[in-house]
Amino acid sequence: MASKPTKTKPVAKVSRRSAIDEDMWEELEETLLAADFGPDITDELIEVMRANVAKFGTTDPDDFIRLLREAIEDRLNKFDTTLKLSERPAVILVVGVNGVGKTTTIGKVAKYISNAGKSVVVGAADTFRAAAVDQLATWAERAGVDVVKPQMEGQDPSAVAYQTIEWAINKGTEIVIIDTAGRLQTKSGLMDELSKIRRVIEKQAPVSEVLLVLDATTGQNGLSQAEAFLEHAGVTGLVLTKLDGSAKGGFVLAVQERTGIPVKLVGNGEGINDLMGFTPHAFAAQLVG
Question: 35 in a domain, yes or no?
Answer without folding.
Answer: no
